[in-house]
Design goal:
Layout lengths: L5 E7 L1 H6 L2 H5 L5 E7 L3 E4 L10 H6 L3 E4 L7 E3 L5 E8 L14 H14 L5 E2 L24 E3 L2 E11 L2 E8 L6 H6 L4 H14 L3 H9 L9 H11 L2
Parallel strand pairs: 1-2, 3-4
Antiparallel strand pairs: 2-6, 3-5, 6-10, 7-8, 8-9, 9-10
Helix pairs in contact: 4-8
């Protein structure tokens, strides 16, 4: 029987949260969860994105760090409260481990969908390992497209996932949007005024937040709108 999940609470700058996971480095044979709460706001770029996708002067004026992660995808704006950021480590000898990099997201996407169902969104759907949905802005903004294991509600992305691996296991990043507002992110990307307006319009129909969804439903008899800690608790309760 696999070990239970070891849970870390990490309160650090985004650069530190992406750079290392000390508990995993000390004992990579144990499965772990890291509930991450960044102490600073930052734009986090995917591993293949160039720094020039960000207007550095605009980012500095907005008080945003610019950080690169080692996993792929587009840019993500992280703040202390949004998105809900939870990382997961699975060692190579764990029953959840698979050598199939794309298929490895499946169980984690199902756990996130289970969490959203607990919160009042039973229609959450997990993207399979095949080709996902892309928009014109997918290469710029992580939430502009839907990849393997990622979760949508009413065809709008709510949870984004990314993965990095080494010989000891797989480190999964998970980000669940609470309230979707891409204005600050788009403000600091190196886009023309026209591109920025088009991106805002395109992303409005492609992305939503769990609080946005449930706020709409609460007015018609749904549950109370969740807060960040509610989302974390629901995910921990949904892990296999």
């Amino acid at each position: 029987m696999p070990d239970p999940w070891e849970i870390d609470e990490r309160l650090e700058a985004p650069s530190a949260l992406h750079r290392s996971w000390p508990a995993v480095e000390r004992d990579p044979a144990r499965r772990r969860v890291s509930v991450c709460r960044p102490t600073r706001r930052a734009i986090v770029l995917g591993s293949t994105q160039r720094l020039t996708v960000v207007d550095s002067a605009a980012a500095e004026a907005a008080g945003l760090d610019v950080v690169r992660r080692r996993s792929g995808g587009g840019a993500v704006l992280v703040t202390p409260d949004d998105p809900v950021w939870v990382d997961v480590w699975v060692p190579v000898d764990d029953p959840l481990w698979t050598a199939d990099v794309t298929g490895a997201f499946g169980w984690l996407g199902s756990a996130w969908a289970g969490a959203l169902a607990r919160l009042g969104a039973p229609d959450a759907e997990v993207q399979g390992p095949g080709p996902g949905a892309c928009t014109r802005w997918s290469s710029h903004v992580c939430f502009g497209g839907v990849g393997a294991g990622e979760v949508t509600v009413a065809h709008r992305k709510v949870v984004g996932l990314a993965q990095r691996r080494n010989r000891a296991g797989a480190w999964f990043h998970g980000a669940c949007v609470m309230r979707w507002d891409p204005s600050l992110l788009l403000e600091v990307l190196d886009l023309t005024t026209g591109e920025r307006s088009a991106a805002a319009a395109g992303l409005e129909s492609a992305v939503t937040g769990v609080a946005d969804v449930l706020a709409e439903r609460s007015s018609t008899g749904g549950r109370d709108v969740p807060e960040r800690d509610d989302v974390v608790s629901a995910l921990l309760d949904s892990l296999p």
